[in-house]
Amino acid sequence: MTPVQIKICGVTNVKDATVCAELGVNMIGLNFYPQSPRYIEPNAARSIVKAMPFRMLGVGVFVDASVEDIRDTANAAHVRCVQLHGSTSPDTCRELAREFRVIRAFSTNRQFQPEQVSLFRDCDVLVDAHHPNLRGGTGLTCDWEAARTTGSLARFLILSGGLTEENVNQAIATVVPHAVDVCSGVESAPGSKDHRALESFVTAVRKANLL
Description:
This protein is of the alpha/beta class. The protein has a single domain, classed as Aldolase class I (TIM Barrel), CATH 3.20.20.70. Helices cover 33% and strands 21% of the residues. It has seven helices and ten strands. It starts with a strand and ends with a helix.
C-alpha cells in the first residue's frame, strides 16, 4: 500500500515549516481566509514557501474566494496548490486546475452526500468535520464512514477533522485515505505548532503505514 501522506495545516511561520520539512511532512497549509485565527498575509506565506524544500507542497487555503483573488494570492505567495472551502463550483475548480493542483474541501454535515465529489473530477478531495461558523481547525472529528465512501469516488482523498496522535491510526484503518490533515491537534495555540506534538503525530502515521 502507498504510504499515507501528511498535511499540516495552519502554518504561519518559517520555524514551524522547517520542523515540518525535517519530519518529512508532504504538505503544509497556508490560510488565506481573513476570518481565520491562522490567517497569513501572502508576502509572509511567500517567505515560508521560499524556505521550504521543493518536495514539500505549500497549499493555499481559501473560503468562497473569487477566481481572481485565488489566482492573485496564490501567485503572490508562490503556492502551487489551492484548497477551496465553501460553495466553489465545479466550473471554478476546473478553471483553476489549469494552473494549480486543486483540493476541494467538503464538510460532513447533514446535507453532505459522497456522490457530490463526482462533480469535481479535476480536484483532489478533502473531507472535514462540519462547524456552523469555522472552516477547518475546529478539533471536531468528521464522519469517517462518509469519508470512506467518498474515498471510492475521489482520485485522491485527504482526511481531516479532529485528528491526533491518539486516533490517527484508527482513522487511517477505517477510512483508508491517501493523506491525513491535522491542524489544531498539533498546536500550542492557533497558528503556533507544538513541535513535540508534530513529531508524535508524524510517528503515529508512519506506524500506521507499517500495519
